[in-house]
Amino acid sequence: MASTVVVLDNGAHTAKVGLANQEEPRVVPNCIMKAKSERRRAFVGNQIEDCRDTSALFYILAFQRGYLLNWDTQKTVWDYIFSKEGIGCSLDNRNIVITEPQMNFPSVQEAMLEMLFEQYRVAGMYKTTAADLAAFNYVADSEERTTMQTLNCIIIDVGYSFTHIVPFVLGRRVLEGIRRIDMGGKALTNHLKELISYRQLNMMDESHVVNQIKEDVCFVAEDFKEAMRVHQCEKKRKEVAIDYVLPDFTTIKRGYVRIPGRPRMDEETMQTVPLCNERFTVPELLFNPSDIGIHQVGIPEAVADCLKACPWQAHRELLLNILIVGGCAQFPGFLPRLKKDLRALVPDDLEVSLICPEDPVRYAWYGGREVATSPNFEEFVYTRDDYEEFGVHGLNQR
């Protein structure tokens, strides 16, 4: 029964989880958080909403450098997710669709299998990647008569730890074409933290607040060299420079951009951070990781390079179906800039078309729901009987 299937897109920053018969997933922070204000209590998942003061929030992450290594933390988060407080149902005797990173280590895969079958007693599991689910959802969404077997597309997954470029030709991942850039939302937040701490005020312990600043004010410049002239022209500077009012956690829970001439109550006494070129130099790392010493190409060059590993007959369709998912896809100006840079790198006779869904964070989860409710889903599930007979090695044979 489709209703019993749990879909879990287990990301490094957030876990998107829900039952296959639900319209929307819950988005839960995939970590344990500790606050200075309440030292005795650890906050798991959405419990952080109960915390009065989230300054100097300390994160204990399940993922390290993009891979699931801290199993104690992950188990604590999963226990919360599959409790009454979470989605309100246990995994006991249910099938689960679960995601893992691209090219995941065999030892991590084995540990996940063991935990799901032996500790959570699942009936069966279908293990996949977020890119596969995004591609599946893309087929389900397409108006034309595209099937998974005829799909040619490139998925750009701009995640928390990495950015992956994954090409699909005739519905199958081209393994030689997958490219990984060690740049994602976490590195951008850390870089913004360093810039603010160096130029304005020490915020090195304020990952939570700086992440909110990044989400609220950062954008991608269409022409970076031109944008950097903000310091030569007063008119341009006025367009970019802002004051960000920091939360005090008594009257203001989340910071905001000060609107000149329209002060809010007590705004004069609030602490503010002036921001100017930080707003676009931080997301620029997705296009030029070498700016902070990471000797890798940016997303446009990685896409152009991934094409070389794909059959030339598919190039036209691949460039017409570039789907962007992940939290960092939401930066204003990201799509036009990526299109402009890609256009300069690929042959002139090929068109470039980028698609960014309305909800790039949950897009893969919706693909998981499509998989779980498809008529032949049961054929692909690795059941408890399979696990008891073949152990962890049977899954890889599959």
TrEMBL record:
Keywords from the UniProt entry: Cytoplasm, Cytoskeleton, Nucleus
Gene3D superfamilies referenced in this protein's UniProt entry, alphabetically: 3.30.420.40, Actin, Chain A, domain 2 (2.30.36.70), Actin, Chain A, domain 4 (3.90.640.10)
KW Signal (keyword) present: no
GO terms (BP aspect): transcription initiation-coupled chromatin remodeling
Compartment list: Cytoplasm, Cytoskeleton; Nucleus
Keyword Lipoprotein: no
SUPFAM superfamilies associated with the record: Actin-like ATPase domain
Gene Ontology CC annotations of this record: chromatin; cytoskeleton; nucleus
Main location, first listed in the record: cytoplasm
Family: Belongs to the actin family. ARP6 subfamily.
Official protein name in the record: Actin-related protein 6
